[in-house]
Amino acid sequence: MHRLIPLCIAAFTATAAAGQAPWPVEMTDPAALAAQDPRAADLMLPLPCNGEMAFQRVVTPVQTDNPLSDRRVRLGDPDPATGYSDYLRTTYLRGPFRDPATDDAQYWIGRYEVTQDQAAALRGDCPDAPTIRGRIPQTGLSQLDAMLLARDYSRWLLANAPDAIEGGRGAFLRLPTNAEWEFAARGGTAVEPDIFNARVFPAAQQMINVAWLQAPGSAQGTARPVGLIGGNPLGLHDIYGNAEELTLDLFHLNALGRTHGQVGGVVTRGGSFFSTPEQVYSARRTEWPAYTASGEEMRQPSFGVRLVIARHVAVSDGEVSRIAQAWQDGLIPDQSGSDGETPLDRLEQALERETDQVHRTELEGIRQLVLARSAEIEQVRQSALEAIILSGAVMIEGLRADDRARANALNVIARLETALPLAPDASSGQRVANNISRTREALRVRQARIDAALSSYARAIVSTVQDYSAAQIQRAADALDAELRAAGQSSLTPAALDFRSDLATYRTQPNLPRDAMLSLALD
Q1: Given its phi and psi angles, is residue 226 left (phi above 0), alpha (psi -120 to 50 degrees) or beta?
Q2: How many CB atoms lie within 10 A of CB 30?
Q3: Is there a contact between 488 and 191 (Cβ–Cβ < 8 Å)?
Q4: Mean pLDDT taken over the chain
Q5: What SS3 state is found at 149?
Q6: Under a CB-based contact definition with an 8 Å cutoff, are residues 409 and 437 in contact?
Q7: Distance CA 133, CA 144 (A)
Q8: pTM of whole model > 0.85?
Q9: How many CA atoms lie within 13 A of 80 on its CB side?
Q10: pLDDT tens digits for 106-155?
């Protein structure tokens, strides 16, 4: 868990309310004390009044040395009944922070909804002592109220603990975007794709175990203290139910998989203590008017907020130069023809020759579309390549397990054949012979499976080398490595590295015989 460096602790202590004791863990990170699967927050940030707020890291695997690299994700829900609002859509994410240990890109989202005691501290009204009632989410907020809490927190943090987030100078607090909220709610890269795409995260099959809702044995129309029940795969609590969480984005319709152009009202996510279990799912966006009929900001008893730590993108000359260079380098896949020219090359040449400004503007518009489409295609190809590398790793582990079983079977046969002449009688000899026959048949089946797996492995090697460059394989392998770490599946990393090594070997030796292919997989 990340903590403040000593300099920041000193700065924070100097600004704490006189005589104010540090808040106990049960008021700031109650899940860390849970009887079942206790887990401390990934990051604790200081608050006024000697308090703290807990945050979880959300990894967004990207090529971190390229500032234009981001993560393509599919969000939404396939149910056509709510498709106008929540239908499947493609969007892109990138965390603004880099983990110094892994070099992963990541963002930070509140582990819990902002509580009443935390909101009071941010308003300068220090509680005498945090209480369980003060751990109830701060509700009754408007979107502007929530933004003002984020503003007050940002001001205080920048003034009193500017280095609280490693590599985060210039960081500030804000509401989450819809994409950030939903990606984190689904479990991000900590879950398998099929689980990520599910309507609700796995534990929510028993929704009452992870959400305070309008249901028997649950909230029954009243907010409850945060962190009392189970969290999602990332360790976020009350992401469903309790307070419905305000977001930074305003409402848009879903126009058959893309964002509609008309901007609407305020959006909340996750449902609340007024929601039934059937009304709560990861993709749901609820639109509310920004103002009441009397002109007041829209506030509801169920409105709360979960904050995100953000950072600027391009406000320094150095950052702008790096981004501009990445833009010039482009993200265009190799589309060379036999003459070495790409369609974009020909378009650039046409732009250089064109003297009519109207035509130049039209050609520039086409160029922009080509660039955008090419970049999108490259994102799709990289996602497919990550899946290929993961499959290659699984095939390697399967081949190695089968080869070990084959070797064991050969040893068993050798021992039985040695024992056969020593059998004390015909009946014993027949039993040994039967065992030899059964083991040989099992070995034959095992060998057939190895041959089939090897054929699949060889096809994967050949097609991957033909379809992707070494640089593309490197980028995809790096992104996959980050995903495996985030999902707690680093045990597959060595096999993935071996598959990448086999790809490199085949690229330089494309005429390898089958036996050599098997040796590659088993080495």
Answers
A1: beta
A2: 20
A3: no
A4: 87
A5: helix
A6: no
A7: 24
A8: no
A9: 0
A10: 999 999 999 999 999 999 999 888 999 999 999 999 999 999 999 999 99
